[in-house]
Amino acid sequence: MSALPITRLSVKEAVSRRLLLAGALLSLAFLALFALGFNALYSRVASEAGQAEAAMAGQAETAVAGAIMTMLGVYIVQFLVAFLALFLATGAVSSEIDSGTLHAILARPLSRRSWLGQRWLAFAGTIAAYAVLMAGLLLGIAQMIAGYGAVAPWRAIGLLVLEGLVLLSLGFLGSTLWSTLANGAVVFSLFGMAWLAGIIEFAGEMVGNDLMRNIGIAVSLLVPSDALWRGAAYYLQSPAFMAASSAVGEPGGAGPFGGSAPPSAALIGWSIAYVVLLLAMAARRFGRRDL
Amino acid sequence: MAELPVHTAGLRKVYGSSTALEGLDLEVHPGEVVGLLGANGAGKTTTVKILLGLVAATAGEASLFGRRVADPQARRQVGYLPEHFRFPDWLTGAELLDYHGRLAGMPAADRRARIPEVLERVGLAGRGNQRLRSYSKGMTQRVGLAQAVFARPRLVLLDEPTSALDPIGRREVRDLIRDLREEGVAVLLNSHLLGEVELVCDRVAIVDRGRVVRAGRLDAMIGPGPQIRVRLDRVDERALAILGGLGEVVAVDDTTVVLAAEGTDPAAAVAAELVRAGYGLQALIPVHRSLEDIFVGLVSEGSG
Questions:
Q1: Least CB-packed of A160, B93, B143, B155 within 10 Å?
Q2: What is the pTM assigned to this prediction?
């Protein structure tokens, strides 16, 4: 850590911001609320299912309820991770330039590339830790209350982290190009667009419309955040839920916000390349900029 | 031979349609305090930013200690106080110094030992554990200076270092600069406070519209001895001959002669000689030629 002074300072900066402290408290409040709501809903569904005539049908019903509630919970966590990434990234470079704190630091024998890389690393670590902690706790709560077990929880969490890093890198690049405010508007719009395109793609699948499907795919190339979430959602299903939904002929029936297929290797490869590419572009742009 | 702390040749910088630097040549030698003087927008800050690699020159050469400024290692022995300096205000003064020491590659033990020493040097003894947020403007400028000299640089670039300081603070900064010079540190001082520069600099470079219009040792620039403005009822050959015997005639018009006088009490001698020769002496005004006169003269000449 001591070899990365900028990383160290950036982490300290993130921690020292009151806003993030408030965010952490709200995150804990969210988890508590989730636990309460999940418990109340689940016990009700479970008792109703117990009265069902066929035991098999009752089991399927509780499995579906548990899966949908868990996935909704992680869906919210996904938004929290995305917002954390976007908030950290939008001013990552521009606000340092505007406030003038950067000049004295870059006057040290430190290359701009190194400064940028170390700062990215600090924020990436913060986002990853947050995603792992929040998704992990939420899945732990679902496990405790309903005995819910996702097919591949670590893969799902990994994809959430990757989504956070994709958005972080997008915001970093924007932060070397535009003011904090303009960048915030741009990256939040892109994030929203990716979300919308995911729904369009889902609808396209449903009605068999190629144009809608292609819109979804094209936007996923531009901003792969929503596609990564859908991959995570696929891995969050429980085996029982998968069996139940394929029994009704709707594999991966998690609805328009979920995922019906595991993420393709191409998507993961592209997302990693996307992070590297955007960071390289940010470094290039920042390296040439007059401060 | 040691490499020059600062060397630039033909430095040019164009921002869009406006030219900030137009072939600036500058050298700073070890242990020398050089003042870069100029009106706002003359190109002083741009010059310093190019030296630090914060701004890329459009053309020309710039190096620190023989290394081109594009190489971050050129800044290994450099301390810098930016003009509009801002530091992360959630750090304490001591943390800020520690952080800059770390960036400059100082070992931890050395940093720990040097923090109280430097804080004391800039008049912030005992304030190290206070957050920068609570510092006054003057204290912030002091901690900025501390940051600039913390890692024992061989070159210090100061951009308007006294703008937020009261007269006592300014004097302390002058003392600090003199100490640095004693230690063989080169200092490049940007300032529009001519009096400050006059008091502390060995050499000055006057910058106007992106180029050095005059550079040299301060004493040579100001010139030796006082000048006297003599107003007479008439100025003729004989009067000029008399005055020429008492010093060097610098300027003449119908009724006034400006004389760079010699001797210990030139005014009395001038008065006595002229009255004895029968001239009506109307005024005898000692002129203190300062850096300001030279500066204003050069800069308004250029714009005229």
A1: B155
A2: 0.83
